[in-house]
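Hey, can you fold this?
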Amino acid sequence: MPRETGQKLIASNRKARHDYSVLDTYEAGIVLTGTEVKSLRAGRASLVDAFATVDDGEVWLRNVHIPEYTQGTWTNHAPRRTRKLLLHRKEIVRLIGKTREGGLSLVPLSMYFKNGKVKVELALARGKKAYDKRRDLAKRDAERYIARTAGRAAKGRW
C-alpha cells in the first residue's frame, strides 16, 4: 500500500478569519481514535464553534464535530469529545503566556491530512469588533471594484 504524501484539506473554519484577526499560526497534531480517522477520511468534520484551551500544560481542542463513523460498532466515538493537541513544549509555553496576556484566543483555522497524519492549523487570534468587520468588508469590496475597473480599462471597455 503506497504512503500518502502531500496535503488534503478536511475542513476549514472560514468564519474565523472574519471574526478574528490572526496574529500567529501553529501546526498541531491531534490525538484521535480509529473511527474518528475513518470519518475524517470520508471528509466529514466541522470546525464551527471550535476553540482550543491550555489546561495544565496541555492544549485541548474543544467543540470540533467529527460525526460517528457510519460502519462503526459499539467502539464508535463521541462526536464532540475533547481532543488533545500535540505541540512542542516551547510552543505550549509561548501559548500559555500569550493567552494569559488577555484578549487572545486559540482558534482552529483548518484540519487536514499531511503525509497521512491529521493536522490542525491553530491560530492565536484577537476578536474583532463589529466596526473592524465592516471596515474589512468595505475594503475588500473597494479592492474588487478597483480590480474590475482596471480589467475593463485594459480591455478598452470603459
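Oh, and this one too while you're at it.
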Amino acid sequence: MYEGLLMFGVVFIAGYLFGTLSQTRNALDNRHALQAFLFVIFGIYFVWFWAKGQTLAMKTWNIRVVDRHGAPITQPRALLRYVLSWLWFLPPLAVSWALGLPGREAAVLALGWVPIWAILARFHPDRQFWHDAIAGTRLVTSLPAGKAPKAA
C-alpha cells in the first residue's frame, strides 16, 4: 500500500512529463503510448532501487530483495524480477483483452486473480511468490544498521 502511494507521485510526474512532451490535450489520446511509457518508468524505478537492495517503501518496512544466496541482486536480475512481477496482472489483462471485457469487468477479474496468485505462494516450498522463485530472488527482513533485535 505504501509503495502505491509513492508510485502515485511517480505516475503523476511521469504523466505530466509525457503529456507535456507529446502535447496530449485529451486523456484518451496517446493512451497506449502513455501506458508503455509508464511501464518503462516503473521498470526504471523498481530496477534501480532493487539493484540497490530496496525501494523507499521496502526501507520503511525493513525488507530487502536479495538473490538465492543472500547477496544483492544485479540490474539484469532486477529487470527479470520486474518483468516477472507482471504475472500478478498479465493473466487477467490478457483474458480481458481476448474477451473484449469492459474496464469494470476487467478490474473485477484482476482483483480476483491477485489473491489467487498470492495464495499460490503457499504452495512454494519456501512460501515465496513465484516471480521471485523464477527470478532467483527473495525478500528478507533487513534491520537498519546499528539496530539489533530485542531479546525476548
